[in-house]
Amino acid sequence: MTATLLRTAGELHARVRHGRRAVVMTMGALHEGHATLIRRARALVPDGEVVVTVFVNPLQFGEGEDLDRYPRTLDADLEVAGRAGADVVFAPAAEEVYPGGAPQVRISAGPMGTVLEGASRPGHFDGMLTVVAKLLHLTRPDLALYGQKDAQQLALIRRMARDLNFGVEIVGVSTVREEDGLALSSRNRYLSPRERRTALALSQALFAGQDRHAAQEALRARAREVPATHARAEALSALGESRAAADAHAVSLAAPGSPAAVRAAARLVLDDAARLDPPLELDYLALVDPSDFSEVGDDHTGEAVLAVAARVGATRLIDNVPLTFGAAS
Is 48 annotated as belonging to a binding site? Predict the structure, then answer.
């Protein structure tokens, strides 16, 4: 099944709508990550309409970035979108989205748009939010789906929808990975085999941090369950359970899980990757609060995002994993 290709908002608005409309926004070069978003949209509006937008937005590319070489594969995109369950691919020209040329009035990303990705790519999030706002108006969806891989983008879109009263539900979808752990991205095709081996350090670093976090949380959970008494350890030891006694003592003294330890575990992997050939050139490693993308302290509880960005050769890649720190015992 191939999705219907529409080029203008007028064509899209002329369609008779049945049920709710879900939109998946892309810049094309669709891969399994996009297909997962489309399938999720189809599941959320089984009797409605799924619209996939394909638009390479010039506003969110800075000087020296890869606007000109960004892959454009519309015929293949139509096939991928259709197989995944899309009804329509809306692929407007720049003149359709920006009829008066580059817009003078734009959405500002505010303070959250100046850190991490915003610091590395000044103006990127202003351009991203401006085109998202435009496409939400042009497609008029009931819900819009975005990938968790672009966690800061997702947080900003949610913030914009809430702060500016957009009447649309914003849905986040978990990151899709290749078999070796690399997060799916249209930019992966730029990597040579050697560069790809180095690039695996991004996901490996995140998984190392995630594993350290899981171990800490498990230790803390046991600490809450085991009585923190010397008598308990002595009783276990008297029964010949010296290992259990040692464990009981250790967990009784366990401190809350440390964000610093999570960062350190991830950093070790990235430091090793910096010595590879070709090397990984780290942009940032951060453990942040998803509400504003500020760095979390060691007393943080609740949700967090461990995020990384790096360059391998000429290709810049990002990745992240969500974490939840439990309340201190």
Answer: no
